[in-house]
Amino acid sequence: MATAELSLQQEFHEYALRSPFKASWQKVMMWVFIVVDALTFGSLLVSYGFTRVSIGTWANPAEVFALHIGGKEIPLLLIAIMTFILVSSSGTMALAVANAYERKKKQTVLFLTLTMLLGLTFVGCQVYEWTHLIMHGTRPWWNPYGPPQFGAYFFTLTGFHGMHVLSGVIYLAIVARMVANGTLDRRGSYQLVEIAGLYWHFVDLIWVFIFTMFYLF
Amino acid sequence: METPNIAHAEAAVEAHHHEPQSFWTKYVFSQDHKVIAMQYMITALVMGFIGMVMSWLFRIQLAWPDHNLPFLRFLMPTNMESGTLQTPGYYMLVTMHGTIMIFFLLTAILTGGFGNFLIPLQVGARDMAFPFLNMLSYWFYFLSCVVVTISLFVSTGAASGGWTSYPPLSALAKATPGSGLGQDLWLVSIALFIVASTMGSLNYVTTALNMRAKGMTLMRMPLTVWGIIVAAVLGLFAFPALFAGAVLLLLDRHLGTSFFLPHLVLGGEHIVRDGGSPLLWQHLFWFLGHPEVYILILPAMGITSEILSNGARKPIFGYKVMVASLVAIAFLSFIVWGHHMFVSGMNPWLGFAFVITTLIIAIPSAIKTFNWLGTLWKGNIRFTTPMLYAIGFISTFVTGGLTGLFLGNSALDIPLHDTYFVVAHFHVVMGLSSVFGIFAGIYYWFPKMTGKMMSERWGKVHFWLTFIGSYGVFWTMHYLGFMGMPRRYYSYDSYQFLPPSMHTLQMIITISALIVGAAQFIFIVNFLGSWLRGKKAPDNPWQANSLEWQAPTPPPHGNWGPKLPEVHRWPYDYSVPGASADFVPQTVPVEVEPSGEHHSAAVAVNGHGHTNGHGNGHHA
User: Fold this and answer.
1) Separation between Cα atoms, residue B432 and residue B57, nearest integer Å
2) Are strands A67-69 and B269-270 parallel, antiparallel or unpaired?
3) Cβ–Cβ contact B244 with A under 8 A
């Protein structure tokens, strides 16, 4: 029994080295998934560009997404804060991965939790933004700022991205639990944290594209 | 550094030491790639049967528009009340025939069925990289089949706007009867199918990249595996566009958005939508749609290459070029989608660019055809059923490929667009070829899957009826296309430019289609009968080299017993000079038997293939 298990371990250890990318299948799979997901977002963003160009007129995002503070209108303030939060969460995620490689259980869990909290704050800001726009009359089929497609793409793009952030938070919660209860210690590898990190950084990167193409243009 | 693989090892040890015992874990919610392959295959064949019956019904309508066949009423109670197919039923049938055949039969059986069975066995793995995800993939596929089948029974009928589901027909619930609930279920089932296909393809790609046995380098993988994983990558990269399109279309239908809807007047009423573009859907759809036809043809090409080499008892001609041309076709398939839209409204210069990229595909396709013929050249051909189907594949691929040169050219496509010529072209090059590849594969690997041999005699009868009958259907259809007969019409009575002789051609097509249909019952009986009481299959009935034939028949859970196979050569060492038999399995070390792995290509180029297995060949 023991020798059989050893030979199987050997077998699977060799498997990883056989990949042309010198990476485990879990990591290869996540990378391929990321490309697939990037193409899904890409299709939505290209559709957005197609529609916007073919309509010709569009809303002015600097006005739509401005915050009124002390009687002044500050364009894109909330979006700037949200972007800052999400980019910071990539920082804490990187720290979680670094600690995972050093097998520092407590710190890993701590930074994973911070990442999740930042992610939730981001989604909270998004909820505020949606509520704000809906209160001012924005609907998927109509909005006071520009052609109806402005609202439609706003809800679709940010909604699809927000869903990714939320799934990421759930994903990180599962990984954090596995770190905390010692599952990863028993497996002898913390690679799961790094793979979850790939997904999280990817979702952040997508935000940079949405931020640039939808809010800045 | 980390050694991440121990995690995997632990899971693997667990998985392989506990072979599932109960009926449910063994045959239903199985995580074994071979069981999942059978589930995929049988579900897909059942869906394909439904799709075929649909084609009979609308073919009967086209050949005998005034028929009255009350005995068919049980098939379609709501659209055939009088025994004659009604217009909405006709549109529903052509739409669902295309949808079911392309997605639920061909895509599913080639990647889900053959991919699942062959990838782990041919690369020497115990199972897929992520067996649980693999199981999930099948059940999502099953769910999508259930949804699409339910859509056939809703009171307003299934989707009927064509398999391409162009808006506005597909976006406005009141446009046609099938644009209601039927179209919603169509979109949901396609979305579920995309999820299933993505989960499956993630596994196929990572398994082939990471789980190869010792010595199985990428350039020693059988061409079947290459064909399947290149198709899997195509699916992974192309389906997201349709997924995004399906989501946007569902929003158009239910949340009042206007992504695809311009201002329209429907039944005298102005709809409250504006500013969207139906062309956007066409771009998203065909960005998937074109790679999709290569998803269907590349695995069939792989299967054909494998069987041709085995049946001709010769190394495959130009292995590296075969791999390169697969990859080249896959790459090109992403930059040609516009050739489906020449008449949709497109800048002629853009159309010109799409013509060029489309015609370039002829180069790798011709290279493949040349190499297949080079493989057959001076071979000791064994005309077994799988071999006949593989040769049939070359025939249909060439026939359909040649008409592709007509249609890829916008100057010719504009008059031929949406005629029967297009229907004939894509059925031959993508439908028939891929079906021939599938039949070749089923007859070839059936012994390994079930442990039984299929009847060769009935296999050959099945082949000849299918082959001749299919040409009867589609060769004839080209003439109708040249007459300018538009596709997708229910009735052709009121078109003066169509001569009365077209009725004769329509009847020839329908009769041939019914013969081909009848021939499939021979296959069904052969398949089921052989499985139940066929002759017991030896481990390597075709005297083949690739790894799956070195495993026990049928392969047990974990495939290889205690020790993984070790690979010493490529899978095409047939008729190697100096070897003791005309085939040398991949597991035989080079010290024991010589290998043609490294110089076979050069030999082939010189035209001096060591072709005859018994040493009486051409000596340079």
Assistant:
1) 19
2) unpaired
3) yes
pTM of the model: 0.93
Burial of B250 (0-12, 13-18, 19+ CB in 10 A): middle
CA atoms of B213 and B307, how far apart (whole Å): 22
- For testing contact with chain A, the best of B1, B2, B242 (most A CBs within 10 A): B2
> To the nearest whole angstrom, how far is the Cα of A25 from the nearest Cα of chain B?
6
The string of pLDDT tens digits covering residues A69-117 is 888 888 888 999 999 999 999 999 999 999 999 999 999 999 999 999 9
Is the pLDDT score of B603 beyond 70?
A: no
Q: Into how many domains does chain A fold?
A: 1
Q: Which domain holds residue A211?
A: 26-216
Answer yes or no: is A20 within a domain: no
List chain A residues with CB under 8 Å of B337.
none
Residue A87 domain-assigned (yes or no)? yes
List Cα–Cα distances, B67 to B71, B77, B82, B490, B505, in angstroms.
Answer: 12, 16, 10, 14, 17
The answer as to whether A21 is a domain residue is no
DSSP state of B266: E
Minimal Cα–Cα distance from B563 to chain A, Å? 8
The answer to the question of residue A15 being in a domain is: no
Average pLDDT, chain B: 91
CATH of the domain at A96: 1.20.120.80
**Whole-number pLDDT of residue B446:** 97
d(CA B332, CA B364): 10
How many angstroms separate the CA atoms of B39 and B225, rounded? Answer: 20
Could you give the angle at which helices A25-55 and B223-254 cross, rounded to 10 degrees?
A: 40
Is B219 at the interface with chain A, CB within 8 A? no
Residue B592 CB-density burial (10 A; 0-12 exposed, 13-18 middle, 19+ buried):
exposed
* Residue A49: pLDDT over 80: yes
Sorted by where each starts, the structural domains of chain B and their CATH numbers stand as 34-550 (1.20.210.10)
Contacts of residue B299, defined as CB under 8 A and 6 or more positions apart, other chains included, come to B110, B111, B114, B115, B224, B227, B228, B231, B437
